[in-house]
Amino acid sequence: MKFQDNQTYTYFQSAPTLKQINRVWKWILIASTISLFILFFIYRNSILAGIGNFLTVAESAAVTPSNQTFFVLGGNGFERGKGAALLAQEFPTAQFVCTGGGDTLNEMRAMGLNFTSSLLTRKCMIEQGVDSLRVTELGKATSTFEESEEILAYCTTHNLKEISVVSSDFHLHRMSMVFGKKFREKGILVHFFGTETKDFRAQSWWTFEAGLITTFNEYIKIVYYVFKY
Predict the structure, then answer these.
(1) Residues 77, 98: Cα–Cα separation, whole Å
(2) Which residues contact 93 (CB under 8 A, 6 or more apart)?
(3) pTM (predicted TM-score)
(4) Sign of the CA dihedral running 59, 64, 68, 74
(5) Shortest CA distance to 221 belongs to which of 213, 102, 57, 190?
(6) Which of 17, 116, 155, 209 could connect to 139 by a Cys-Cys bridge, CB 3.0–4.6 Å?
């Protein structure tokens, strides 16, 4: 404060200190966090369902393909095999190629059963009534990326310009990421079909242990694939 001759007072206000600024930002952060928590609580079902739906939507929608070659990815021979068998009924002249190598489950190995993923899927399809002559195997790949490479080589060898790929519905988004660009660059049109998950749905995945595990695994794999490939 400065005393002047005209009997008026002039006040000098100093700039806010770093401590004061930090205190303000702290309260802003707390208020924002509380607001976000409230909004999440109110709209939690819609948000969580959106998280599941994101995984079950492919880059290319499953439409009626003009091609007659379906590739069934390995990883869950029962669900994907049953889903592929339904597609075999819908497309009675289509041929199916099951992919996926790797080891079988420990429980099966304990019984001396050493099946690849592709063989398990093929067996499931045949048990569901699909003619064995309509189902062949590519049993070397051990990941979605390796399967895409194996399928791309198959398409090149057999001069295929349009194919369909079948996998679990929760696998669709990552599958379309892996297949999309490289197949477009080769002029190959890919249709994606998702088989129904047996134990849970995208709209309620968080209410089931299997849904929690599958959803978190998929998001971790998506991040991994983004940086890896």
Answers:
(1) 9
(2) 68
(3) 0.80
(4) positive
(5) 213
(6) 116
State the pairing for strand pair 2-3/9-10: antiparallel
User: Each residue of 95-117: pLDDT tens digit?
Assistant: 999 999 876 666 666 777 778 88
Q: What angle do CA 112, 118, 124 make, to 5 degrees?
A: 80
Neighbours of 164 (CB within 10 A): 25
Per residue, the 3-state secondary structure of 114-169, as one string, reads CCCHHHHHHHHHHHCCCCHHHEEEECCCCCHHHHHHHHHHHHHHCCCCEEEEEEEH
Which tokens go with 218? 């998929």
Which residue type sits at 213? I
Residue 194 DSSP SS3:
strand
Helix (H, G, I), strand (E, B) or coil at 72: strand
b/e for 95-126, b at 16 or more Cβ within 10 A?
Answer: ebbbbbbbebeeeeeeeeeebbbbbbbbbbbe
User: What residue ranges do the domains of the chain occupy?
Assistant: 14-55+199-229, 59-198
Is 3.60.15.10 the CATH classification of the domain at 59-198?
no
Residue pointed to by tokens 């999440």: 40
What is the C-alpha separation between 188 and 160, in angstroms, rounded?
A: 7
* pLDDT tens sequence across 5-50: 555 555 555 667 777 778 888 888 888 888 888 877 788 889 999 9
112 SS3 class: coil
